[in-house]
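User: quick one
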Amino acid sequence: MTDKKLHIINNALELFAEKGFEGTSIRDLAAKAGVNVAMVNYYFGSKEKLFESLVEERATYTRGVLDEIVNNNSYNDIEKIDRIIDSYINKWFTNRKFHRVLHREIMLNQRETLQQAIVDILYPNSLIIKGVIEAGMRKGVFRKVDAPLVIATLVGSINQILLSKRMCNKLLGKDQDYVPYEDAAFAKRLSEHLKQLMHAHLLTKS
Amino acid sequence: MTDKKLHIINNALELFAEKGFEGTSIRDLAAKAGVNVAMVNYYFGSKEKLFESLVEERATYTRGVLDEIVNNNSYNDIEKIDRIIDSYINKWFTNRKFHRVLHREIMLNQRETLQQAIVDILYPNSLIIKGVIEAGMRKGVFRKVDAPLVIATLVGSINQILLSKRMCNKLLGKDQDYVPYEDAAFAKRLSEHLKQLMHAHLLTKS
DNA sequence: GATAATTAATTAAACGTTTGTTTAATATTA
DNA sequence: TAATATTAAACAAACGTTTAATTAATTATC
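Assistant: Done. Structure below.
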């Protein structure tokens, strides 16, 4: 990927995250990236292919991290859950614009191939977490829980915070200038909430 | 509100939920409702005002229900949480298209006034739940928890299930024909997961 | 209660923009 | 010299919206 293509993609990410795919015009994109409107089609072929390139380019951003945690034998099962929580919060907070683009898109019933691509990005992570939960249950360290729904809770909690700054700040009683995703103290607060929640829910004895 | 306006709104809801605001054209809307394209502007003034009318028309769909639960003295604190969970699942599953429209819109940084309207719809419900949690904590029935984040978990868990059928089914290991939101057994399953989760997290003694 | 006057509802067509995309000419680099 | 990059301009199609004419419904008058 050339610098120019990356430059366009990175600028496109901001606009797509802010205004959605249909809400963003190629002229918007070109203006923001400081290039001629024809360059988008010259480099990517179409607006939709630019979007796909964006997803593909950023798709690798999680791969491997969860595997490392899961295969690290110095962690017991609940510690793995803890590390996964921190990993998710850290990664999604820093890559929140891309994450927002993914979730906006997967809510729609359009652009079938792109939806599949997004599932391919997100689902493997879920599988890894599921493995940890089931291992814990087999050993009797974890209570008998509904693993897929535990994942939905974990992911959904972070998403709820991440996807609407306005709603999040309202919930927290903060004013609208506050950016929770850039506040390390808030990341910690969320992390501790989720850990406390998962400990109480999963562990057979506290 | 006349029948004709309601008819247009109800058809618009489906399209907006499926394709988003920008992704839906007035010609789409008119075709789906079986009326002339000019009727939308005749009745509502503009596409944006139609959207606002839609939100306004459906906005009252939760009001009062949570209040009833909270003010019912025959429930103790954790039972109120249980009833709130069931109420949320039931209401959001049946009104899931409207709910999807709300959440698609609040993720964007466009249409400022509409965002405020959506916050005005959703936030009062959060306040009521917050009240229940804090009352439980004061009495020592509930553990010391992060009330706003508990709400985020509760709402976020249901949203995670609700906003993408594709991702939901992948998580549950179901095929894509399955519609979890129309399956009473699944509603029960989700309800029990959330109750178990909240009991473990909130109650000082199990 | 029939007829005329008035208002409301509905239509097809056109409006001016904006959209994504392409072209054909020019500039840059290899 | 040949390939690549960049540009301004043009393209057709789709967009939200308006118009002007017509039909339907309502109200007023006798």
